[in-house]
Amino acid sequence: MTRIDTTGLRVPHHLSRLRQSVRAIPPGLWMTAVAGWLALLCTKVITPDSTIAVLRPVAVFAFVLIGPGWAVAKCIPLQTTLERWVVAVAFGMSSVLLVSVGFTFARNDSMELRLVILAAIATTASVAAMYRAIRSTTSDEAVLR
Questions:
Q1: Are 99 and 114 within 8 A, CB to CB?
Q2: CB-based contact 87:75 (threshold 8 Å)
Q3: Which residues, in sequence order, are CB contacts of 88 under 8 Å at separation 6+?
Q4: Closest CA to 114 of 72, 67, 71, 73
Q5: pLDDT in tens, 35-77
Q6: Residue 74 domain flag
Q7: Torsion sign across C-alpha atoms 16, 31, 92, 49
Q8: Could you give the number of structural domains in the chain?
Q9: Which of 50, 51, 38, 53 has its CA nearest to residue 115?
Q10: Does 4 map to a domain?
Q11: What residues make up the domain containing 49?
Q12: Which domain of life is it from (predicted)?
């Protein structure tokens, strides 16, 4: 395998700042943003008569219990990890309840669509938390300069 010598190449300033900003995002936020879509993928790929069919309810329940709530809790400035877990579980369960009530009123029995709505909530809140993490690192760099 040949290596390309990049010592003489200069990275434009805005690209290096973008790379630093992306590195400032905690990996947990990336996982939270993708978790709902992975749970939905599990419901589509794993058939009910499969030998690993037990993974379907486990993946969905784990996401529904913690996923949307954890993403929203990362947007709120909380002091302790215990507070973050309490808010995550409380918001996760209440968001499931509200989405289910809304779909019941609309007379829509689609569980997949409910999971899509919850995944969209988790992704949106994760993106907001990512933006907040990037903004806090750039403001910290501004203070250090």
A1: yes
A2: no
A3: 66, 69, 70, 72, 73
A4: 67
A5: 888 888 888 888 888 888 888 888 889 899 988 999 999 888 8
A6: yes
A7: positive
A8: 1
A9: 38
A10: no
A11: 27-144
A12: Bacteria
Retrieve residue 136's tokens. 């806090």
Q: Tell me if 9 is assigned to some domain.
A: no
Q: Confirm whether 85 is domain-assigned.
A: yes
DSSP string for the chain = ------TT----HHHHHHHHHHHTS-HHHHHHHHHHHHHHHHHHHS-TTSTTTTHHHHHHHHHHHHHHHHHHHHHS--SSHHHHHHHHHHHHHHHHHHHHHHHHHTT---HHHHHHHHHHHHHHHHHHHHHHHHHHHHHHHHHH-
**pTM for the predicted model, two decimal places:** 0.76
Contacts of 72 (CB under 8 A, 6+ apart): 87, 88, 91, 121, 125
